[in-house]
Amino acid sequence: MIELGYAESLFENTGKGNRNEVEGKTFVGYYDSFTTDGGSKRMFRPLWWRTYRYMDLQSKPETSR
Fold first, then answer.
1. Considering its fold, how many domains does the chain have in total?
2. Which of 2, 11, 37, 44 has a CA positioned 20 to 30 A from the CA of residue 55?
3. Among candidates 5, 4, 29, 3, which has minimal Cα distance to 16?
């Protein structure tokens, strides 16, 4: 399973702050999750545009269905 997160800024306790500073801030955003099957010619097309400055990419083991 792959999770792809999108955020325009990172957050700290006091709010967004300066978007260029990342030290000590937390990622808060929307995620798309999808399961890959290893097949050839697979394509991911979201139903809507994605705009972001920061991205969080996570690969997770598949859970039993």
1. 1
2. 37
3. 29
Domain encompassing residue 64 = 1-65
Distance CA 27, CA 5 (A): 9
Q: Using CA atoms, how far apart are residues 13 and 26, in angstroms rounded to an integer? A: 9
- Stated pTM of the model: 0.69
Backbone φ and ψ of 29, nearest 5°: -170, -175
Classify residue 64 by its DSSP letter: P
